[in-house]
C-alpha cells in the first residue's frame, strides 16, 4: 500500500516575535495546505503574510510551533529545493541574462544545458519575454523582471509554489494572463500554491481557500472556501458572474469583520 501524499504545508501553533523592536508578527497559526491545493493569504499591510511565507521557505525561523513542507522539515525542503519562490522583490541576479536567471534552479540541480535552454525558452514564451532572453534584468521594467522571477520559480515544476504578491507590478491584462498561466501550470503539474495578495478578486479567482489574517499580532481570523473559480472556469467571463461577486463579498466581509470589531465592537457581517 502506498503511503498517502503528505500535505504540501502543515503549520502548527506557529508564532513569530522579532526581537528587534519586540514585534509579535504572528501568533498561533494553524494551517494545512493539501497537496495540489491553492491557498491565498490576505490581510492588512504588516499583518505578517510575508513573514509566514518566509517561515515556510525556511528563510526565517518561527519563534514557536512547527512547520512541515511536503512532510519534511522546512530546512530539508529548502535544501532539496522542493518549492519555487517568487517574492515581492523580483530578486534577479543582475549579472546573468534573463534566460540564465530562469535556468538557475535547473543549473543548481545539474540539468544539462540543452534541456535548460529548452525549458527557459518555453517559460519565457509563457511570460511573453521571448525577445528578452538575452537581455539583463536592469534593461527590463519592474513588471517584466517580476515575470522573469515567476518563470524562474516554475523552472523545476516544483510540488509547491510560494508567491508573495507576484503580480503586484503588472498591468491588469498581463496580470489576468499570468493568473491563467499560473492556474494552468498548477493544474498540469499538481503543484500546491501559497499565494499572498492584496487583491480580493485575485484571491477569489485563484484560490480553493482564502485565509484572512488580522493585524497585530497576525493571526488567522477566517478561512473562506471560494471553490476555485479560475480552476473550474471554462469561460473567461466567470469574473463578471453574480456568484463570483458573492465570493468576493464574502472575503471582503471577513476582512472587514476585524476592523468593525476593532472600531465599533459590532459584527456587521
Ligand atoms: N526582519 C524583521 N525585523 C523586525 N521586524 C520585522 C522583520 N520583518 C518583518 N517585521 C515586522 O513584522 C510585521 C509583519 O511584516 P510582514 O512583512 O510579514 O507583513 P506583510 O503582511 O507581508 O505586509 P505587506 O502587506 O505590507 O507586505 C511588521 O510589523 C514588520 O514590521
Ligand atoms: Mg509582505
TrEMBL record:
GO terms for molecular function: ATP binding; ATP hydrolysis activity. Pfam families: ABC_tran (PF00005). SUPFAM superfamilies: P-loop containing nucleoside triphosphate hydrolases (SSF52540). Keywords: ATP-binding, Lipoprotein, Nucleotide-binding, Transport. SMART domains: AAA (SM00382). InterPro entries: AAA+_ATPase, ABC_transporter-like_ATP-bd, ABC_transporter-like_CS, ABC_transporter_ATP-bind, P-loop_NTPase. Residues 9-240 form the ABC transporter domain. It comes from the Bacteria. The keyword Nuclease does not apply. The keyword Secreted does not apply. PANTHER family: ABC TRANSPORTER ATP-BINDING PROTEIN (PTHR42788:SF20), TAURINE IMPORT ATP-BINDING PROTEIN-RELATED (PTHR42788). This is Sulfonate ABC transporter ATP-binding lipoprotein. The lineage of its organism: Bacteria, Bacillati, Actinomycetota, Actinomycetes, Mycobacteriales.
Amino acid at each position: 500500500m502506498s503511503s498517502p501524499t503528505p500535505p504540501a504545508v502543515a503549520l502548527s501553533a506557529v508564532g513569530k516575535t522579532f526581537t528587534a523592536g519586540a514585534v509579535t508578527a504572528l501568533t498561533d497559526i494553524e494551517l494545512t495546505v493539501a497537496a495540489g491545493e491553492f491557498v491565498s493569504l490576505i490581510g492588512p499591510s504588516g499583518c505578517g503574510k510575508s513573514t509566514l511565507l518566509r517561515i515556510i521557505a525556511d528563510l526565517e525561523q518561527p519563534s514557536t510551533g512547527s512547520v512541515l513542507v511536503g512532510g519534511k522539515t522546512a530546512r530539508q525542503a529548502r535544501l532539496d529545493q522542493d518549492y519555487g519562490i517568487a517574492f515581492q522583490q523580483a530578486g534577479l541576479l543582475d549579472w546573468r541574462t534573463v534566460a540564465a536567471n530562469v535556468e538557475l534552479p535547473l543549473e543548481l540541480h545539474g540539468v544539462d544545458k540543452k534541456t535548460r535552454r529548452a525549458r527557459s525558452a518555453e517559460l519565457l514564451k509563457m511570460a511573453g519575454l521571448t525577445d528578452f532572453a538575452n537581455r539583463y534584468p536592469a534593461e527590463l521594467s519592474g513588471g517584466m523582471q517580476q515575470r522573469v522571477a515567476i518563470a524562474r520559480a516554475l523552472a523545476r515544476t516544483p510540488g509547491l509554489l510560494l508567491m508573495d504578491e507576484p503580480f503586484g507590478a503588472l498591468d491588469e491584462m498581463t496580470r489576468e494572463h499570468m493568473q491563467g498561466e499560473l492556474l494552468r501550470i498548477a493544474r498540469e503539474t499538481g503543484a500546491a500554491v501559497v499565494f499572498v495578495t492584496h487583491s480580493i478578486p485575485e484571491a477569489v479567482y485563484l484560490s480553493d481557500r482564502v485565509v484572512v489574517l488580522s493585524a497585530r499580532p497576525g493571526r488567522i481570523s477566517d478561512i473562506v472556501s471560494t471553490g476555485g473559480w479560475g480552476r473550474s472556469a471554462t469561460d473567461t467571463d466567470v469574473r463578471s458572474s453574480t456568484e463570483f461577486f458573492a465570493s468576493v463579498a464574502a472575503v471582503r466581509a471577513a476582512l472587514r469583520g476585524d476592523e468593525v470589531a476593532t472600531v465599533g465592537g459590532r459584527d456587521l457581517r
